[in-house]
Amino acid sequence: MSRKRIRFGGPARQSAATTPTQLDAEVHNLSLDGRGVARVDGKTLFISGALPGERVRARVTTRHKRFDEAETLEVLQASSERQTPPCAYYGRCGGCQLQHLTPEAQIQHKERLVLDQLQRFANVTPEIVEPALRSSDLGYRRSARIGVNQRSDGELLIGFRRQSSNKLIDIDNCPVLEPSINALLSDIRPLLSDAGNIKHVTHLDISCGDQSGSLTLRLTRRLNDECISALQQLCEEQGFKLYLQGNDNQLQAIATGAAEPSYRPIEAGPELQFVPGDFLQVNAEINRQMVARAIQWLAPTATERVLDLFCGLGNFTLPLAQHAGEVIGIEGSAEMVTRTRDNASRNGLANVSVFKSDLSQDIRDTSWYQQASGQGFDLIVLDPPRAGAEECVRQLRQYGARAVLYIACNPASLVRDAQLLIESGYRMTRFAVMDMFPHTAHVESMALFEC
């Protein structure tokens, strides 16, 4: 009787002889997540810390049926585009993936990646590829969620998640954060360290406007009055609003005298106030360039109607309203709708209407559509989340817009939605990538579609 070992599902385990723990590889490309791509014995290998044109010694960390994953142990032949990472925590902190690649090469890689995806999967080639939007690669991030933990011996940890881990790495300074955030963190550390047991503080949410900012402490139970008073004084000195947020997710404002945080999407443009939890483009300089280019590309006139889908705080809505005859903003969050209406009123823009609607669903039966769509729209702006705007795009042909501006934070969603727009009779006439998140694998781009 044969006694073969029974395997209970899963692929057969590969022997160490066929998949060695360490190997040498020639890297020929970068993946969507910023890892080097190599082929070893006919199988794709994704290598963290490796760059195109390099020969590296790597350690295989995970094996799959169609590909393997590895980490760089030694760079045997370095790329001319490799640089010394500007952050002392790089490689341990999970916040950045590309600090070993020069900023110029990072954005070039991202541009090639999106253009290649558009051509390969949607058969779309932009008529004009405009220069990428660039900003400083350091000190650019104006909002962040920063973890807080306390060990059993009382040692305080303030920082970001470690690479491939839920554990925190303690940091003194993050070079991609705005200087005002680093200054605030520097003073919060001793304050919390002296507060005794603070295991009920889970993280800090910090956002900066043009002149002031907000600090929110996420808590599982209330802080003591002495600690709150010290935080209040610190925020007063540094120009931050202070909020406490408990398990009920309600914000409790602690008076500090700081101005309401706000920013201007374009120079000399409307002023947009915000509160903790509102979505902000994290890179203020890129956002200003993006909104300015949107106005340039769309060129709205005083007689045209604009539809701004996923309008948020009115980042595009209000600047466009300064040029167009009428702008209709649509947003899924009731709080953001209220904020956009208030921002429009505060800036004296009477030609703005804002409605709440779930844009992942068919919108033809919604009250706002019945009210606003009768005259059609000349221009449409789409600034969707990572999932894209498939449902909206499928309905765009009925609006009769002469141009559609698509802001993409996910190349895959852009590819899918671009294909739908092309099928609806549009052409991608202009395209540009945006360096919204330098040193990370995140790719942001904008594309103009015209009839």
UniProtKB/TrEMBL annotation:
Q: Does the keyword Nucleotide-binding apply?
A: no
Principal EC category? transferase
Q: Where does [4Fe-4S] cluster bind?
A: 87, 93, 96, 174
**PROSITE patterns, per this entry?**
SAM_MT_RNA_M5U, TRAM, TRMA_1, TRMA_2
- Record-annotated residues binding S-adenosyl-L-methionine? 281, 310, 315, 331, 358, 383
The record's EC number reads 2.1.1.190
Catalytic activity of the protein: uridine(1939) in 23S rRNA + S-adenosyl-L-methionine = 5-methyluridine(1939) in 23S rRNA + S-adenosyl-L-homocysteine + H(+)
| SUPFAM superfamilies linked to this entry | Nucleic acid-binding proteins, S-adenosyl-L-methionine-dependent methyltransferases
Pfam assignment, any one: tRNA_U5-meth_tr
Indicate whether tRNA-binding appears among the record's keywords: no
- Which UniProt keywords are present, listed alphabetically? 4Fe-4S, Iron, Iron-sulfur, Metal-binding, Methyltransferase, rRNA processing, S-adenosyl-L-methionine, Transferase
- Entry's InterPro entries? 23S_rRNA_MeTrfase_RlmD, MeTrfase_TrmA_AS, MeTrfase_TrmA_CS, NA-bd_OB-fold, SAM-dependent_MTases_sf, TRAM_dom, U5_MeTrfase_fam
Ranges of residues in domain TRAM: 16-74
Per the Swiss-Prot or TrEMBL record, the active site comprises 409, 409 (nucleophile)
Task: State the protein's purpose.
Answer: Catalyzes the formation of 5-methyl-uridine at position 1939 (m5U1939) in 23S rRNA.
Question: Which family does the record claim for this protein?
Answer: Belongs to the class I-like SAM-binding methyltransferase superfamily. RNA M5U methyltransferase family. RlmD subfamily.
Q: Which NCBIfam families does UniProt cross-reference here?
A: PRK13168.1, rumA
Q: What is this protein called?
A: 23S rRNA (uracil(1939)-C(5))-methyltransferase RlmD
Look up and give the organism this protein is from.
Answer: Marinobacterium zhoushanense
Q: Which gene encodes it?
A: rlmD
